[in-house]
Specification:
Chain lengths: 85, 552
């Protein structure tokens, strides 16, 4: 149902590969050991440990926006809409 | 020097309580109005006839995930452990929640729509071709939801008791000056549970969705308002962070001596790296929350999920950043010169709060720093909105599961009228609400809201070791599913008991701190996954028909 022709499937696979790599990278970046004892503030009021992770949340949203834009499972939707069995 | 109340006024205005009462009235009115749209069918009661659009789905999903844990719990945890609280839960959730919505939610939606499933137990029964798996899963899900319900009701006590302290000294006298005149927990719980029950009964999941949307908008707006007012009262954002206790600005583990009512204690501040790493399993819990499954079922279309997937991390940020900052600012009560900056009651109450009581920091700070009673009432109503927006969906969901998966399963549904089906669901919900209410009164002083919630999340997160293979591995078998659930349940129960039934706990902790080890959720998840995989490899595979149904 989702495979279609060979060419789009390969393209999907490469996009999927990129998504997985970026996801793993983001998960690794979450463990920001280099900020552990950093007591500085950003913008005069936000501790670095908080500012970094707030920015992380924004990056996560951008990542998921890209995933939704480029890797939305339209095949799955069509399959679901085909009706009840 | 900021202008603040130097001490609490002698008479306490009841205006905040009036504002809260008006908010509850408005909420009831909105939900009862949605009840007019209730079509009277069990389909509409349980899944709102699949008519919830993208914005309401985002508000519902976000509202149900942002519980007392997010407002009361996060502020309290930041007050307890410091700046790492945001990274511990919020930023990880931004990445992993959306992953669960994308990988689990959409696929579950598709399968459920094609085959007409109402509940996650129906899904797993059919996927693994086993009726009895449902009977094994049902008590696990119910038992894990109960701590989640408890944090909602206990969270309402943490909020309403300080807010109403001093309001009714003749009606509710108490020798403790903080509790003197405050509404008693039994009354608070009764009202909160009563309001939620009323609008669930009126309109089922449609009323819950409307109420969630309203409440989510209220708590986001009020949270930002509280943040702005508190920072202003402290002399601005810069002044507020300057007086924060230095140990709370970093994640490096340190200790703080705290003189609580029970005696001198040492608070573990900061977060060890291994705990921070293994905490990343906790957000997986959204993959198995029964009420979120229910939300996926109520979506109009898969496209309704797009906004939720993208906006969820941003919504979490909007709520958690202010809450964590408020919790950090409040640690100024431990510094010399605190009484020059904070009202004396805030210093007295929060500098002696035990780890179980830190959740009251948000309402204590609002009470003594937000001078305008109407605004204080609005902000408190916002916190209650967050709490109640989770209770409704969970209550409703449990009723749905009980009715469809326990009572009506293996029975001829046509023997029951639509009214009878809805009545059965409502009766079970009343039973669960009563149990939660009684437990909340018994346990209200025992555990920290944040820590109790994490135990509930841990159980559901560990159970995602069942749903991922169910969706993506054709080789996952019935026996493997049983092994998974039993492994998760037994490891969870073991660690829950080791924690003292709901306290903060890490396994294999070294040194004198209790948080240097591995979060139990990681162990339970791995135990479940390994059990499922190993047993599946040696047991009978699902039928071709099942594979065709579940793997497009």
């Amino acid at each position: 149902m989702l495979s279609g022709s060979v060419h789009p499937f390969s393209f999907m696979k490469s996009r999927l590969g990129i998504i997985v790599i970026v996801f793993v990278l983001l998960a690794l970046l979450h463990q920001d050991q280099w900020n552990w004892d950093n007591a500085n503030t950003v913008f005069g009021f936000m501790p670095v440990g908080l500012a970094y992770h707030a920015a992380y949340s924004i990056v996560a949203a951008i990542f998921w926006a890209a995933v939704v834009r480029f890797a939305w499972p339209t095949g799955l939707e069509k399959w679901a809409d085909e009706g009840d069995e | 020097m900021p202008t603040l109340l130097a001490q609490a006024p002698d008479s306490v205005s009841v205006t905040p309580l009036v504002v809260i009462a008006c908010y509850l009235g408005l909420l009831l009115g909105l939900a009862l109005f949605s009840g007019f749209l209730f079509r009277g069918t069990s389909q509409d009661y349980f899944v709102a006839s699949r008519s919830i659009g993208p914005f309401m789905l985002l508000m519902s999903v976000f509202g149900t995930t942002m519980t007392a844990f997010a407002l009361v719990g996060s502020t309290g945890k930041a007050f307890q452990k410091g700046v790492g609280t945001y990274g511990l839960m919020a930023s990880a959730s931004g990445l992993i929640h959306a992953a669960c919505f994308f990988l689990i939610g959409i696929r579950v939606w598709a399968i459920a729509k094609r085959h007409g499933y109402f509940t996650q137990i129906q899904f797993f029964r059919n996927r693994f071709e086993s009726n009895n798996l449902g009977y094994l899963l049902f008590p696990c899900l119910v038992l894990l939801v109960i701590p989640y319900l408890l944090i909602g009701v206990i969270g309402s006590y943490r909020v309403m008791v300080p807010t109403t302290s001093g309001m009714f000294p003749e009606l509710f006298p108490h020798e403790n000056p903080v509790l003197n005149g405050a509404l008693p927990p039994w009354l608070i719980g009764l009202v909160i549970c009563g309001v939620v029950l009323t609008y669930i009964f009126a309109g089922g999941s449609r009323a819950a969705a409307w109420a969630n949307t309203f409440q989510t908008l209220v708590f986001m707006a009020m949270g930002l308002l509280a943040f702005f007012l508190i920072s202003k009262a402290l002399g601005g954002l810069g002044a507020a962070i300057e007086q924060t206790n230095p140990g709370h600005l970093v994640r490096t583990p340190s200790e703080l001596a705290v003189a609580t009512k029970a005696g001198e204690t040492v608070r573990e501040v900061g977060i060890p790296p291994l705990m921070f790493l293994t905490y990343m399993f906790i957000p997986l819990s959204v993959g198995m929350f029964p009420h979120l499954f229910q939300h996926w079922l109520t979506a109009k279309s898969a496209k309704s999920f797009k906004l939720t997937v993208v906006a969820h991390p941003l919504c979490i940020m909007v709520v958690w950043v202010p809450c964590v900052l408020i919790g950090l600012w409040a640690t100024g009560v431990f510094n010399e010169g605190a009484k020059d900056i904070w009202p004396a009651p805030v210093v007295n109450i929060m500098s002696s709060a035990s780890d179980a009581e830190v959740g009251k920091v948000l309402s204590v700070v609002i009470k003594f720093l937000v001078e305008e009673p109407i605004v204080a009432g609005l902000v408190t109503a916002g916190i209650l909105a967050a709490i109640m927006s989770s209770l409704d969906s969970q209550f409703l969901c449990l009723g749905t599961i009980f009715t469809n998966d326990v009572v009506l399963h293996n029975r001829d549904r046509s023997q029951f009228s639509e009214k009878q089906i809805v009545l059965i669901a409502r009766s079970f919900v009343v039973g669960i609400v009563l149990l939660t209410y009684i437990l909340s009164l018994v346990l209200k002083n025992v555990q920290n809201v944040f820590d109790l919630a994490v135990w509930s999340f841990s159980g559901f997160a560990a159970l995602t070791s069942l749903v991922f293979p169910a969706l993506y591995w054709k080789g996952a078998t019935k026996a493997g599913a049983y092994a998974c659930v039993i492994a998760v349940a037994s490891t969870w129960i073991y660690f829950f008991a080791k924690s003292g039934f709901g306290g903060e706990y890490t396994a294999f902790a070294t040194g004198h701190r209790s948080d240097t080890g591995v979060m139990p959720v990681a162990i339970c998840f791995v135990a479940g996954l390994v059990s499922l995989v190993v047993v599946s490899l040696f047991t009978k595979k699902p039928s071709e028909e099942t594979i065709r149904k579940f793997f497009p």
